Amino acid sequence: AQRLAYADRDHYFGDPDEIDIPLDVLLNPTYLKYRASERFDPSEKPIPGNPALVIDTLAAIPNWGRDNTIEAAGTTHLSIVDGNGNAVAMTATIESAFGSQRWAAGFLLNNEMTDFAREVPADGTQLANAVAPNRRPRSSMSPTMIFDNNNQLLMITGSPGGNSIPAYVSKTIIGVFDWRLTAQQAVDWPNIIARGDQVRVEIANNKGKMIATNLAKRGYQVVENLSENSGIHLIIVTPNGLDGAADKRREGLVRSIK
Fold first, then answer.
1. Is residue 148 part of a domain?
2. Which keywords fit this entry according to its UniProt record (predicted)?
3. What sign results for the dihedral spanned by CA atoms 155, 10, 227, 215?
4. Does a structural domain hold residue 29?
5. Across residues 65-75, what is the average pLDDT?
């Protein structure tokens, strides 16, 4: 599922002010059910889906070239809930570490242009995330707030980590709501990033090693990492109060201030 989601995201997403992103179609339950049924051999690189095959839509589905964006990791995230129930999920970035490494009025300038696709396909095919005047580059930042049917806050999550952020964040959502993990257990769970033709697995503990071994046996091209650079900050609202967790992989902390 993660490989399919990344394939669609990499293909269709760019600056919404400059290109047409068929978001409603990509999130349509009919398309999602069809997309989930598509299977790629573990050794294959998943290709983007085509919603037009299952949904009649007046909007043209863009036919972009294959994305080649390379995103750096120089981001931070914080999650906050105050005593009145106000909440913030904030992810901020200047792209790679120290941005452009240039100062102006006491601030580091970003180098966000590296978030664009850096190469033009040899055949001249246009890319959704191509660099262009007045265009914003695609971002993987995913500050997330989850509410129940009564619009009551259930959870806040987010993380730095470049294009791995969607995998880090979705891990915490699945961990909490599907696997019933505590906040810290969800954050500590081994990171798995299935993008393209490789599956990157964090093997810092036996659980991660077991996951990597099982995926390799199934034929996936597994890349083992001792540690990922996630920096998840997670808060769960429970009947007994707030359950917070900070990622031990970075320098984050959990604090209750009264």
1. no
2. Hydrolase, Transferase, Zymogen
3. positive
4. yes
5. 70
β-sheet bridge partners, residue 108? 103
Domain count, the chain: 1
Domain boundaries, position 44:
2-53
Q: Does residue 27 lie within any of the structural domains?
A: yes
Query: Between β-strands 222-225 and 198-202, what pairing exists: parallel, antiparallel or unpaired?
Result: parallel
213 is catalytic: no
pLDDT, one tens digit per residue, over 22-56 is 888 899 999 999 999 998 889 888 999 988 888 87
Picking from 71-75, 150-154, 161-165, 204-208, which range would have the lowest pLDDT averaged per residue? 71-75
Rounded distance, CA 258 to CA 236, Å? 18
Q: Is the residue at 14 inside a domain?
A: yes
CA dihedral (120, 122, 128, 134) in degrees, to 10, reads 30
> Could you tell me the two tokens for 234?
């997670």
- Dist. CA 203–CA 60, nearest whole Å: 43
